[in-house]
Amino acid sequence: EAGVAQSPRYKIIEKRQSVAFWCNPISGHATLYWYQQILGQGPKLLIQFQNNGVVDDSQLPKDRFSAERLKGVDSTLKIQPAKLEDSAVYLCASSLEASGYNEQFFGPGTRLTVL
Amino acid sequence: AQSVTQLDSQVPVFEEAPVELRCNYSSSVSVYLFWYVQYPNQGLQLLLKYLSGSTLVKGINGFEAEFNKSQTSFHLRKPSVHISDTAEYFCAVSGFTGFQKLVFGTGTRLLVSP
Predict the structure, then answer these.
(1) Do B95 and A44 touch (CB under 8 A)?
(2) How many CA within 13 A on the CB side of residue A101?
(3) Is the pLDDT of residue A100 over 80?
(4) Is residue B3 within 8 Å of A42, Cβ to Cβ?
(5) CATH of range A5-109; options 3.40.50.970, 3.60.15.10, 2.60.40.10, 3.40.190.10
(6) What are A17-56's pLDDT values in tens digits?
(7) CA-closest candidate to residue A55, choices A104, A98, A101
(8) Most buried residue, A40, A99, A100, B111, by CB count within 10 Å?
(9) CB-CB: which of A41, A91, A98 is closest to B43?
(10) CATH code at B9?
């Protein structure tokens, strides 16, 4: 079974530029998550999708971050414009369903550096 | 809302020694508990989880954890570590009902030396 795929693996941009990350979850997984992991911290949930609908985006900085999951499969996370404090690893995860007991499977992440 | 505290940011240990990584949680409702491991430049991988039943949970790679409701703890243990266990370990909690999100601790870096 193929795992969660993410691209790119690394991205370096200057502040005020825009950037987009892509995620392809495990086939059949209804729930998709985007996490932000700042160096030295645990992952923090940015947004959670159930199929193509948003379940939780309470910690997404909506003035600069946006995400979509078209057709309930792939997802894209965008930052526009980027700030220095956005430097982090962005992890995508998926699970069969959104219930708390479901295992989340993580992709390798995209390491973003904002200069 | 839930929160997780991992008391040790880094734990150095010699190969073949036992290790315990501490995790305490806070929640007003019943919870599910998880331990994830993150190797360098990789995503997180589930080590083990507590959903219900026996409070001693066995996971992959020889790890186990014990759920203690009275002390709100879920400490991770391994009787004999290997060099390959060097990684970052995250404790996480989610609530029982609805669309519950996973809340992670800040992580503990396990450093195994020969």
Answers:
(1) no
(2) 6
(3) no
(4) no
(5) 2.60.40.10
(6) 999 999 999 999 999 999 999 998 899 999 999 988 999 9
(7) A98
(8) A100
(9) A91
(10) 2.60.40.10
Per domain, the residue ranges of chain A are: 5-109
Cis amide bond preceding B18, omega within 30? no
The pLDDT of A64-82, averaged and rounded, is 94
My answer on whether omega of the bond before A81 falls inside 30° of 0, hence cis, is yes
State the Cα–Cα distance between residues B76 and B28, nearest whole angstrom.
23
Boundaries of domain holding B14: 3-113
Hey, how many other C-beta atoms are within 10 angstroms of the C-beta on A50?
16
Q: Parallel, antiparallel, or unpaired for β B87-95 and B31-38?
A: antiparallel
Produce one character per residue of B2-12: b if its CB has 16 or more CB atoms within 10 Å, e if not: bebebeeeebe
Q: Do A42 and B43 touch (CB under 8 A)?
A: no
